[in-house]
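Board notes, transcribed. Complex of a protein with uridine-5'-diphosphate.
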Amino acid sequence: MEQPPHVLIFPLPMQGPLNATLKLAELLCLSGLHITFLLTDHIHARLLRHSNILTRIQSYPSFRIRTIPDGLPENHPRGGDSYLELFESLRTKTPPLFKQLLQSGTPISCVIADGVLGFTFDVANEIGIPIFDVRTLSPACLWIFFSLPNLIHSRELPFEGGDLDVMVKGVSGMERYLRRRDLPSFCRSGDLDNPSIRFYQTETIHNPRACGLILNTFEELDAPILSEMRSICPNIYTIGPLHAHLKAKLAAASSPLPAFSNSLWEEDRSCLTWLDSQPLKSVLYVSFGSLAIVNKDQLMEFWHGLVNSGQRFLWVMRPDSAVGESRIPVELSQGTKERGYIVGWAPQEEVLAHPAVGGFLTHSGWNSMLESIHEGVPMICWPYFVDQQINSRLVEEEWKLGFDMKDICDRSVIEERIRNVMEKRKDELSKSVDHMANLAKRSLSEGGSSYSHLERLIQDIKTRVDNSSRDEVL
Ligand code: UDP
C-alpha cells in the first residue's frame, strides 16, 4: 500500500510560531499525513517541562518529534531583545544538521518551514524535496518586509527628521493609513546597516520561490493586503485562525482530545476559576505575550492605569517580562486585591473565550490578535516590536476592533482607553468585533475560505509528493 506523504515541519523556535505550527501539524495529521515536527533542544526541554505535548501527540500515531540544537549556549536568554542572535545562530550553524536530518531515518517527502529560516529553502532544493513556507506573523508586516527594497529605493528609508507621523507611500495598498511610526520599530534606527533591516530583506527574498506560502489569517480579514502580495507570491494558502481551525475540525470529527497546553511557561489555570466568579464581559485581560519586555516605569504606568480605571482585570506578568526592581505602592496592591488577579502565564485561548472577558490589553502579537478577533474581544494595543506596530494600526484604523496606544505609556491615557473599551464605547466596538468574529468563524466552516484553502494545501502537498517521487523513478 502506498504511504501517505511524510511532512517535516520546522517552526521558528518561539512561543507564538510554535503555537500556530503545532495546530497546523495536527490539522495535517487529521487529514492522514505523517508529520515530523522539528524542535530545537531548548524548546523541546521547556515543552516537556511545562506542557502535556507527549500525551497529546500520542493520540496521533503518525506524529513524531525530532530535535536539533539552535547553536546558542544553554544560558542564553533567547528573549525579545536578542531574537536576532537566535536567528543568526540558526542560519549559520544549523544547515548541515538540517540536511543530515532530511537524509536520514524515514524518508521526508515534503518540508514546511518558517519562511524566515531561508537556509531550509536552499537545503530542501539541493536534495530535491518540495518545500512550502509558513509565516506566522501578520500578512501586513510580511508585505512591509517585501516592500523594504522599494522603501529604500524611494528614499523613504532611512527616515529624514524625527517626525514619525509622516505618511509612507512605498508600501502599495497601505498609502492611506501607513505612517512611519507604523513600520516595524527597527525602521526607526535611521541606518540601512541596521541588522534587522538587513536580515528581513534577505530572509524574505526566497518566499515567492517556495511551492507555496502558508499564512495564519483568513481572506476576509486581510483581503487588500493579500491581493497585493499575490502579485509576487501567487500561491498563498490562508488557513487561519489556526487555533480555531483545529478546534472546528476536531469538533466536526467528534474527536474530543484532552485539554492541551503547548506553553513554554507553567500555565496557572486558577485564573479560569477566578474568571468563573466574575460578571459577564467585566474583565480586562492584560498580556504582552512571550517576548516583550516592560521596564519598571512602564510597569507602574500600566498598573496605575488599570487600578484607576476601576475595572476588573486579569494580568499576565511573565516572570522574565519586567526589568528593574519595583516597590509596589499600597494603593496598587489594594486595588489589585479588590478587582484584579495576576498570574505568571495563563491558558490564553481559554481566557479569551471566557464569557467574563470583555477586553484585551495586548502587545498586538499576531497570535494574540487572531485569538482575540475569533472570540470577538475588543483590544487596546500597546505594540512592542516587529509586526506589532502595523497590527495595532490596522486594529484601530482599518478594522475598528479597538484602539492603538502606540508609543504612549501614560497612566491617564491607559485609564481612559480602558474605560472606553469596557464602558463608554463598548456598544460601538461590539458591532465591529462581532462582525469580524462571525467572518472568522464562517471562514472555518465547510466551504469557507480557510476551510477551502486547507483542503487545497493538503491536495497540493499530495500532488507535489507524487510528482517528485515519479521524477525520482524516471
Ligand atoms: N500566551 C499564552 N499565555 C499567556 C500569554 C500568551 O498562552 O499568558 C500565548 C498566546 O495565546 C499566543 C502566544 O502565547 O498564542 C503569543 O504569541 P503572539 O504572537 O501573540 O506574541 P509573541 O509572544 O510572539 O510576541
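The CA atoms of residues 103 and 127 lie 8 Å apart. The pocket of uridine-5'-diphosphate is lined by residues 14-16, 19, 263, 287, 289-291, 316, 345-346, 348-349, 365-368, 371 (CB under 6 Å).
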